[in-house]
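Minutes, methods subgroup
Present: GH (chair), OT, SY

1. OT presented the first of two proteins processed in the latest run. Sequence and structure tokens recorded below as shown on screen.
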Amino acid sequence: MTPRRRPRWSELQPLLRPRGIALDGTARRLAGTASVDDLRSMARRRAPRAVFDYTDGGAGDELSLRRSRAAFASVEFQPRVLQDVSTIDTGTVLLGRPAALPLVFGPTGFTRMMHTEGEAAVARVAARTGIPYALSTMGTTSIERLAAAAPDCRRWFQLYLWRARGACRDFVARARAAGYDALVLTVDTPVAGSRRRDVRNGLTLPPSLSLRTVTEGALHPSWWFDLLTTEPLEFASLNRFDGTVAELAARMFDPAATVSDLAWLREAWPGPLLVKGIQMVEDARIVVDAGADAVVVSNHGGRQLDRAPTPLECLPAVVDAVGDRAEVYLDGGVMSGSDVVAAVALGARAALVGRAYLYGLMAGGERGVQRAADILGAEVRDTMALLGTTSVGDLSREQVRLRRG
């Protein structure tokens, strides 16, 4: 039997390290998050269901959404040991300019719906982090107001090909005048994907006061208070719209768009041009031939065509086909810094994230976005160190394989 004794105070005292009580509830909750998935759980509790589901959901049966995550879950790293990793350089060059991480805050629609601080909060965090941020055409802050709110942010503007080409030209001119340095053309939206969660939740833009939303308001009073006591949602691309996401897409998106439309855009925009939504190698070749400076391998986060190809699995073939003529980026399923490292090792110049920072935004506004950025950055550094790699440029395919079965 193990002999027992009474512990001495001198032995207990070093173990007693009470933490100060944080009076700010948001700060306290964010301090307890260790991953983007933690932020997702926090966002789910704080945002109304329709708003959370709009961010969290995908198209159809959400197979593409789950497969994108499953692809990253299948990644197996091949680490080297006994490497000097005392200094890690996570910096890279994106479209000719330095970035602190191989990461971009990608474009997301209706961002102020998630939290009224919206796009401005995301852009300010991007500026502090040293990475670009792409404002969506479907954003809820105008091109000019975002530039004024985050003048130090490296701003890209995301464009859809709309039926009204004159409106597209106007957006391009406004973005150029406001100092945006790259244009991201999204090409996988001839029509809107079937977002079943939105249909079931009765989501409208802006959110309407129905019996369901009033009930949700009782469960999430702070969200509704913010919505009703701040400026009405303002869209980057139109003054106002009342209806569902699908109705807005049907009104605006042009199902007749072809690669010839890329030619006039190339003439109208003198800066870097990225084409987002590439899933097939031949399409990558076509848009690069038409003047694209970069392609984004993306299935729209699983929100357009369900059962679409999985970006991480498509990435190496696209890099092999056009990587010597254009930069290749990856978008879809990225939820951790290790995902970012895996994408770069497989040939991406950087990874785009959307849901990851939106979970932070819903969880705690700008501070939540900053927490997401801090988590992702720390995970990138730690993953590189554990791989035995000290710079982003040294990441290679030999360090990653996708497990099957």
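2. SY then presented the second protein from the same run.
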Amino acid sequence: MSAFSSAHGTGALPATLFAVIGWGDYADGIAARLTRQYSRLGALMDPLTDRLLVVSGVVVCWHFQLLPRWALALLAARELAMVALARYGIGRGVELRINWPGRLAVAPVMGSFFFAMVDLKDIGEVVLYVGIALALLASALYVRAGRRAVRAAP
């Protein structure tokens, strides 16, 4: 990521690249829904690429100490746990759809990295906390729905 070529991890280029990638991923999802063009591979890869984008933002913000490390560690742990839980669920035939807290968490989480990269760290920190709260709520709901689906499976 271009943030590592800067002295402080901040600047217009790294923030713009991160924003373009994030918005591109969002637009891709909207386009797929509007055109009803789905594939099994896309359904499996999209959440993984989302997780990788979040982890890349965590890595940059961690390296340059742009946001509180404890919050970044919590977010990274949540993302990795979601990948593991999704894999576990897929192995048991459980498919979960994104829930509203999960949808709502995306903007503040991604926004926190953007704000930190443009040196608006206070705003980035506030929206990071909002995003983490929503992401943890979404995770709890996913676990609950997954447990129900596993119990209901023959």
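Chair's summary of item 2: The chain is about 80% helix and 0% strand.
Next meeting: continue with the remaining queue.
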